[in-house]
Amino acid sequence: MQLLFIRHGESEDDFLENDYQGTTDLPLTSNGIQQVHKMCRRVSVEFPPEFVWSSTLLRASETAGMLSDTIKCPVSFLDDLRERQEDESEADFKLRAQHALSFIKENSANHKRIAVISHGGMITNLIERFLQLPFEMNDVWFRSNNTGIHLLEYTEHPYNLIRFSNCTSHLD
């Protein structure tokens, strides 16, 4: 099964103070909507998913809704895909990502390709879980620009693949 991890488009949250942790729920900007339309066109042509999972936060759910409408596939929303919350420890955040990835994998087994629309911190944690990195590692960050696409794949071999990471060529 292939997994498309896609960060939401630019949102009003992107313009908050530097120590902002993703807990507010603001919409996409007009630029973010344009970014999402470009991402949707690319995904629909190159690697259309059969199903979309999304964070419940507005900036991600707007992104997922536009992708679902473009691809004409169902979307389901999971609270566990939200960005790290203010009162949440790093360990609890990692555990939530593990739970989300396990749930998605189990409930997507009949699909060849799915998309997961989420946030930068959550995408890093999902990739860590996909790679089965130790929970104690706190020095890894997988960059996710606005509408950045990561394509990962569970294979029949004893290894998993990262086909590409944080691709934003659709914005060029």
Largest β sheet strand count, sense and barrel closure: 6 strands, mixed
Name of the CATH superfamily:
Phosphoglycerate mutase-like
Can you tell me the CATH architecture? 3-Layer(aba) Sandwich
Give the structural class.
alpha/beta
Q: In what order do the strands lie side by side in the largest sheet?
A: 3-2-4-1-5-6
Query: Unreliable runs, pLDDT <50, ≥5 residues?
Result: none
Task: Explain this structure.
This protein is of the alpha/beta class. The protein has a single domain, classed as Phosphoglycerate mutase-like (Rossmann fold, 3-Layer(aba) Sandwich), CATH 3.40.50. It is 35% helix and 20% strand. It is built from 4 helices and 6 strands, in the order E-H-E-H-E-H-E-H-E-E. The chain has a 6-stranded mixed β-sheet, sandwiched between helices. Strand 5 and strand 6 form a beta hairpin. Helix 1 runs parallel beside helix 2. The two termini are 28 Å apart. The mean pLDDT is 93.
Short description:
The protein is of the alpha/beta class and 172 residues long. The chain has helices at 30-46, 58-71, 90-107, 120-130, and strands at residues 2-7, 51-55, 75-78, 113-118, 149-154, 160-167.
